[in-house]
Specification:
The complex is a heterodimer of chains A (302) and B (185). Chain A has 302 residues and is mainly beta. In chain A, 9% of the residues lie in helices and 42% in strands. Chain A is built from 3 helices and 12 strands; from the N terminus they run H-H-E-E-E-E-E-E-E-E-E-E-E-H-E. In chain A, strands 1-2-3-4-5-6-7-8-9-10-11-12 form a 12-stranded antiparallel barrel. In chain A, a hairpin with a 2-residue loop joins strand 10 and strand 11. The N and C termini of chain A lie far apart (63 Å). About 2% of the residues of chain A have low confidence. Chain B has 185 residues and is mainly β. Chain B is elongated. Chain B starts with a helix and ends with a strand. The interface between A and B is large, with 43 and 54 residues.
């Protein structure tokens, strides 16, 4: 009997310590599902677009450059490994209407083309409930150069092409993000360089970013164009666009220093027209710089 | 050993022990911080601070998700999380400690006290003494805690690149405004 009373005594004493601040804290779960931020640092990787868009009321100014072939017939010391040559130059502005919707305009040296783009974020990756981000991308391009032959462009619409892409991305860890970009290029017959080639082309892009330092990442993307809807036997040798680079972020700037085999910067130009290869010296240096401007009135917090 | 005195003793311990201690809690404490630097002033606010306070022994625990801070500029918010706080690795800012200086549960005017404890930000814990003002409502059902203190980025290994020293202050001013409710036993 005594033992039972003693047990009661010990039990009530131990109850003193049963409830404390820590155990109560554990029951208070202010857990919220946050959207994953910065899957990629920039709306562009090397050649492809990423799932990222401009922040609302933010304007980005873009400067892109592709130099000439490093090696092969057109490179080497004669052109200082391509640095004497500019195969493409891009100047553009992207503006975020909302956090999800971005519109942009740009001008490329390649084909003297003017382009307009729209990006819309359809799904955002979330920590708990959503594994992927999905962004839709559309870009139209208008070639303004003089025709190479008299009837190259019979109609004005022969100069216009459209590119549509679905960007599916996932940030696996703070340092590793991956994306898959199926796309479709719609172009008039007049823009076909090899008359066996098909007008419209499917493409399938893959891209990844790996952070090596807090502000420096290795970026790469590869786009399959050959072997999808493009015929196999063509007179012109086309290659799949492949680029690798280093991305450096400093506050409002993002610098990407890249090597790639594509001569052109926008998808409407590089998807159908990549005629250089990594294996025969056709790889070139290039860079892409963006500067962000916050145009909106200061967002009211709370 | 006679059983009766033992039972009385255990009843007394039970009734006067901290097991019946009064706890206060909040899940929407407002925490803001302010950085004043030559180029710009940066401000961010979270309304998601979670805290539990034991009024009898002064034990307090405070936690806020780093991701819950909202900034005026969305890009700043991204940089804050990605470059400075690394909030995917270090998800919470935590303060755990003891209110010292004679907290009086029955006193309804403001009491100026000190929290002695560990402040963990960016995965780095610092021992701190943080001044707080506590005010308990007359009916004892609510408790308000206010505090203003400074956090040096260096103390928590938050690195500011030399290029940006003009944009971000080395010492950040943190303001806390928490309204606690009593937890009914």
């Amino acid at each position: 009997m005594k033992k039972i009373y003693l047990l009661v005594f010990l039990f009530t004493c131990s109850g003193i310590y049963a409830q404390d601040v820590d155990s109560l804290m554990a029951t208070l779960n202010g857990e919220k599902d946050f959207r994953t931020i910065a899957t990629f640092k920039s709306p562009r990787l090397v050649l492809l677009q990423t799932n990222e868009t401009q922040k609302a009321k933010n304007l980005a100014f873009w400067v892109g450059h592709r130099f000439g072939d490093i090696g092969g017939e057109f490179g080497g010391s004669n052109t200082l490994f391509g640095l004497d040559i500019a195969t493409d130059l891009y100047l553009g502005f992207d503006y975020g209407i909302t956090d999800a919707l971005t519109v942009g305009i740009g001008r490329s040296k390649f084909n003297e083309s003017y382009s307009g783009l729209v990006k819309y974020r359809l799904l955002w990756q979330e920590e708990e409930s959503m594994p992927l981000s999905v962004t839709l991308f559309g870009q139209s391009s208008w070639i303004t150069r003089e025709p190479f032959s008299r009837n190259e462009f019979d109609k004005e619409s022969d100069r216009i092409s459209h590119f549509l892409q679905v960007i599916i991305a996932r940030k696996f860890s703070p340092g590793v993000s991956v994306m898959i970009n199926p796309g479709y290029l719609i172009r008039p017959e007049a823009q076909i360089q090899d008359f066996e080639d098909s007008d419209n082309l499917f493409s399938l892009g893959f891209g990844a970013r790996v952070k090596i330092l807090k502000r420096i990442s290795i970026i790469a993307d590869y786009t399959i164009v050959n072997g999808l809807s493009r015929p196999d036997e063509l007179g012109i040798d086309y290659y799949n666009p492949f680029g690798v680079g280093v991305e450096i972020e400093t506050g409002g700037h993002v610098f990407a220093l890249n090597f790639q085999n594509s001569q052109a910067i926008i998808a409407n130009n590089f998807i159908p027209n990549t005629t250089k290869s990594w294996t025969d010296g056709g790889v070139r240096f290039g860079f892409m710089i963006s500067r962000n401007f916050n145009l909106g009135p200061r967002r009211t917090i709370n | 050993m006679r059983p009766l005195p033992l039972l009385i003793l255990s009843f007394l311990i039970w009734s006067f022990s901290p097991a019946k201690a009064q706890f206060y809690q909040t899940t929407n404490a407002e925490i803001s911080f302010f950085s004043s630097a030559p180029v710009e002033d940066i401000e961010a606010v979270s309304n998601d601070g979670v805290s539990v306070l034991n009024i009898d022994n002064g034990a307090i625990s405070f936690k806020v998700k780093v991701r819950s801070f909202k900034f005026e500029k969305a890009l700043m918010q991204e940089h804050f999380n990605e470059n400075y706080m690394e909030s995917e690795r270090f998800t919470d800012a935590i303060l755990k400690g003891q209110i010292t200086g004679g907290l009086d549960p029955g006193f309804s005017n403001s009491q100026e006290l000190i929290i002695k404890g560990d402040l963990t930000i960016h995965g780095v814990t610092q021992e701190r003494e943080i001044p707080v003002v506590v005010q308990i409502s007359k009916d004892g059902k609510q408790l308000r805690l206010n505090s203003k203190f400074e956090v040096a980025c260096k103390d928590h290994k938050i690195k500011i690149p030399k290029l940006l020293w003009e944009n971000i202050a080395e010492v950040i001013e943190v303001t806390v405004d928490a309204n606690y409710q009593i937890i009914k036993p």
